[in-house]
Structures are given as structure tokens and as C-alpha cells.
Amino acid sequence: MDVASRFLDIDGLFNFRDLGGYRTEDGRSVAWGRLYRSDGLHRLTERGAAAFLALGAATVLDLRTAAELAERTWEPPAGWPGRLLHVPLLRRVPNWSALPPEESARPDFAVDHYREIAVEGAAGLRAAVEALAAPDALPAVFHCAAGKDRTGVLAALVLRLLGVPAEDVADDYALSETATARWQASVTAGGEDDTRAHWSHVPPSMLTANRETMLGFLRAVEDEHGSPAGFAATLGLPPATLDRLRTALLD
Predict the structure, then answer these.
(1) What is the pLDDT of residues 37-87, one digit of tens each?
(2) Per the CB 3.0–4.6 Å rule, which of 13, 27, 63, 94 could disulfide with 150?
(3) Nearest-angstrom CA–CA distance, 152 and 38
(4) CA separation (Å) from 51 to 2, 17, 33, 185?
(5) DSSP 29
(6) pTM, to two decimals
(7) How far apart are alpha carbons 131 and 228 in whole angstroms?
(8) pLDDT in tens, 147-192
(9) Pairing of strands 17-18, 35-38
């Protein structure tokens, strides 16, 4: 799949992507134009807001913490008829400044952090899937701050529940490397830097989107729960909800 076809030109955003086109294990495919993942919508410019409206999104899921919402609020564009839901996956943004250097440097640190998101954010993940499977919920957008970590965990769960192979889910996750490069180029050119990725105490594995990180997370979840459906059951998602999700998102 051409990487460029996944990134949408939404001015102010660096990681706005269409999750369509991925083939499932039973030979179907995720529909284009129904589900998008993104970095923080608070960065939308006036031109970006117009492009957002043109998508016809019916639902936006904001995965950020309450403190992040208060600090960088997104006001939907005037005339947007959709529904904005706050479904936090973490209670607070992690502070890793006190981590011992050997802990911070672990190559699997990000894997463990994503597992923590899956545990702490269980209620949010359940609410997000329920919202996406609801009638008239699509097209939908979900986002956090950078569109990589919390957004990546939810994207991985949804794609695996749809039957997209883990290798393809990892490839999708890794596209955030392209978004990071675009963000860095913007900052270098004088753009606003409102992320925390430049902080020196952020563990190195959290500053990248290595596909092996996502594969490690998916292996850990499926080792514990047996399958994506098993994980969904642990979250309290009944089979009927998963059926509605697949009907809504698969061609």
C-alpha cells in the first residue's frame, strides 16, 4: 500500500491517516473513508478545519487525559454536526523523569507501556469500540496527542478485531515514523512545538514507532488472552458489538 495514500492533507496535523484498505485474514478489506487516526485535533488550522469538515466525520474520540484537554482544548469547527466523546486511556500523562537510566533504556519499554495502557485504559477501549460500532457513528476519527501511542493501541485493537493480520497492524503503526519526520521538519522551519517528544527523559523506545514494538505488544496481549476476541471479552465487549463493528467497517 502506498504510504502517501494513507496520509490526508489536513493542515496543522502530521499524523492524520485513513485506516482503510487493509486486507483481513478472511479475504475482506477495511473500507476506505470510514475510520481515521490522528494526532491532536487542537492543531487544526482554519484551512485544516475546512478539510476536516469535508470528511463528513460523524464521531470524534479524544483519547487524551482530562489535563491535556484542559491545556489544549479542541473546539469543533462551527457547523460540525458530529459527536465528540472523551474516552481517556490514561489518568495522567506519564512522568518518566525519575526512571533509572537502565530502565529507561530498555528496548521493550514501549511494549510494557502499551500493556499498561491496555490495562489502565480498559474502560476507555471498551467505550471506544462501542462508540465505533454504534449506528451512524461513521466516519469516525480517534486521536491522542501525537497519534502514535494511545492512538496506536486503539488502532491495533480495532484492526485485529476486524481480522487484519498482526504484521499489517505493525506496518500501520510504523507509519508514525513518517509523521514524526514531518513534525520535526515543521519545528525546524519555525512551527509550534507543543509535544513532549523532545524531552530528554522520555525513554528512547517511546520516541520511535518501531514495528517490532507493536508486534511485541500484540504477542503479549494474545499470549495473555488467547486471541483478539479473547481480549475483547476481557474488556466486556460482547460478540454482537464486534459483529456490528465488522459490518460497519469491512467491505
Answers:
(1) 999 999 999 999 999 999 999 999 999 999 999 999 999 999 999 999 999
(2) 63
(3) 10
(4) 21, 13, 13, 22
(5) B
(6) 0.93
(7) 18
(8) 999 999 999 999 999 999 999 999 999 999 887 777 666 555 555 6
(9) antiparallel
Contact by Cβ (8 Å): 68, 93: yes
Length of the chain as a residue count: 251
Q: Kindly state the cell numbers that stand for 125.
A: 477501549
Residue indicated by cell numbers 479524544: 62
Query: What pLDDT score does 233 carry?
Result: 97
Asked if pLDDT for residue 193 goes beyond 90, the answer is: no
3-state secondary structure the chain: CCHHHCECCCCCCCCCEECCCCECCCCCEECCCCEEEECCHHHCCHHHHHHHHHHCCCEEEECCCHHHHHHCCCCCCCCCCCEEEECCCCCCCCCCCCCCHHHHCCCCHHHHHHHHHHHHCHHHHHHHHHHHHCCCCCCEEEECCCCCCHHHHHHHHHHHHHCCCHHHHHHHHHCHHHHHHHHHHHHHCCCCCCCCCCCCCCCHHHCCCCHHHHHHHHHHHHHHHCCHHHHHHHHCCCHHHHHHHHHHHEC
DSSP 151-219: HHHHHHHHHHHHT--HHHHHHHHHTHHHHHHHHHHHHHTT-----STT-TTS-GGGSS--HHHHHHHHH
